[in-house]
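Researcher: We're teaching a course module on how sequence relates to structure. For the next exercise, students receive a sequence and then see the predicted structure as tokens, so they can try to spot secondary structure elements on their own. Here is the exercise chain.
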Amino acid sequence: MPSSLSNYIPEVIVEQILLHLPSTTLVRFTSVSKSWLSLISSLSFTLQRSFSNPKNPSLLLIHRSQPFSPSTTFTTTPPPYSTPHPFSLRFIGSLYGVVCFIEQSIGHDHAITLFNPSIRSYLRLQTPAVKHTALGFGFDSYNTDFKLIRIFNRVELYSLNQGFWRCIHCPYRKLQELQFSNTQCFLHGNVHWVVSHSYVTNSFVLIFNMEQEKFKKMSFPPNLVLDALCTLQLKVTVIEGYLSVLDCCGIWMMREYGVAESWTKMFNLDLERGCISKVFGFRSSAIVLMLLHKKGEISLHSFDTKTQEIKDLRIKGEIIAACEDIGSLVLLDRISCPVSKSQDKRRR
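Model: And here is the predicted structure for the students to work with:
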């Protein structure tokens, strides 16, 4: 029995064995003992496991319409719960096997959900029915902590370790009046958004560091802004470890992170008058997935940065999220948290 073996085998050896077992086996082993449950469900174990298995993970689609034709490229799963019409689910980000999305209805945002598809565990965070200016999902590696940031008439940060929202300082006045694109991504400890003071000029990348909990700006080259018909149509993502943006006709990559002069247009896109509504890039894959509006239909397309080929994957309907499937065992079983500590104080 595993519990008796652990009495004779050093803990460090047991941990190394567990790191290389499949997710389904690890889920069963969480019932062996409290210590195994604590180890297997910890974020540090998840991180070690992702680094110990360097092979390219499969791609996971979270899709409302199940099932559709099986694929060797993707695995599919439905969202963790159903939402009534007219709610939609908008993807915010995914990290280490945890997917973040928000419920939306016309003019309002509602609950934010952290979801682990591997074990169907999720945490639903109630929020006030407001329209957020921007949202971001990231990871604080110093404190081993998932964090969420939201911007509306103030800036608030949620820590999974702490289990509540708190207000944080922002050095920019009237941040909620800036125009944000509808995508964001996490790379090198930072959440990134494309931001503009107007619909055409003065566009830049706004960055929030999850460890330092501070904002800063990063500029675009003039050619990138001129190429985009509207800078708010730029989609920011990560492709093979590079900060990247997609416009209606191409992909730009920051070849040296933090160096604005290293922005380079790498690929041209021929979308045949289609319009990109969502984009999903991956750290360890050359494939970029795009949800494309074309001739009244929404369908998933892929762009291979190696062959520069665009394919219609013939998957239609609302793709909530596409992410790398690393088989995370992170448990998200906290009860829903209060709206925020600052709001609780005002109510008293």
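Model: If you want an answer key for the exercise: Confidence is low (pLDDT under 50) at residues 334-348. Helices lie at 2-5, 11-19, 23-29, 34-40, 43-52, 222-227, 341-347.
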